[in-house]
Amino acid sequence: MTSGSASPLSSSALLARLPSTRLMLAFDVSARHLNLVRAAEELGITQGALSRQIRALEDHLGVRLFERHARGLRFTQEGELLYDFTRRGFETLGAGIGRLTLRAERQTLVLSVARSFALRVLIPRLAGFTEAHPHIHLSLDIHRYFADIASSGVDVSVRLGGGDWPDCRALRLTRDCIVPVCTSAIREQLRDPAARPRVPLLRNIERDDASLRVEGLDELPHGDQRIDFNDSASMLAAAEASLGVAISRSSLVADAESIGRLVRATSWEARDGLDYYAVCTERAYCKPAVKAFLDWVEGVAPAWPARS
């Protein structure tokens, strides 16, 4: 050890210098309220007992932490500095205990997800969540129609919409456009005006408004050859099998485009104001498993298809 350098305190010496947790908690609550009456009510003690604890802490530290006024408390410079440390310390401690508690309790998280979004966006990325939260048991409710999250027992619903669901929290996951996609082989056929009418247009009849948007585009097929589907996942599987041109939401085809399985049939695209959202009720949001899922989604969603 270099001459003149201070040796680090041992754990026992450090603990001997620290005030008791009871005094630190009394200070933290008082600092948060800056009012002894409200702080005492939160702690479940009398105002006199709280005042004695604050004085004991000030005596221990050798500094004044508050100035007392008729309207309540006011920080001294030392008190404001200490509150910055206690606030962060208790937040860190609370987060750590919360994580331990969450891991100790096996929880079930029920997700209602549209089949197309589940198969083409969520499930390929879901391993990141299950690896980070092995204590949470996932139950996926895959449907073409969205469940009523207020009465169905679903915790989080990933649904398409404009982001406005009364009495719910909604986290936007994508920023979608309507796009025409096909395989490279089909795109070559589209370049031949004689062959173009023979290329089927693939439609999701549940979202036929998307197909109607492209009726005036000369680059796309407009003959009698059409194949209808009742969900987007089946329609896109058909497009990947070179059955025709599919009109899709951009988030559902971004992965296939990135590896060349699908390409844009034309450069045309349009916004319809609808995006995928993770939606939950305020009551469900109080569940640790729901918060864990939404925190994970919020962290990874910026890298998801069509998010920017």
Automatic annotation (TrEMBL):
One of its GO terms (biological process) is DNA-templated transcription. One of its GO terms (molecular function) is sequence-specific DNA binding. Keywords: DNA-binding, Transcription, Transcription regulation. The keyword Heme does not apply. InterPro entries: LysR-type_TF_proteobact-type (IPR058163), LysR_HTH_N (IPR000847), LysR_subst-bd (IPR005119), WH-like_DNA-bd_sf (IPR036388), WH_DNA-bd_sf (IPR036390). Residues 19-76 form the HTH lysR-type domain. The keyword Glycoprotein does not apply. Belongs to the LysR transcriptional regulatory family. This is LysR family glycine cleavage system transcriptional activator/LysR family transcriptional regulator of beta-lactamase.
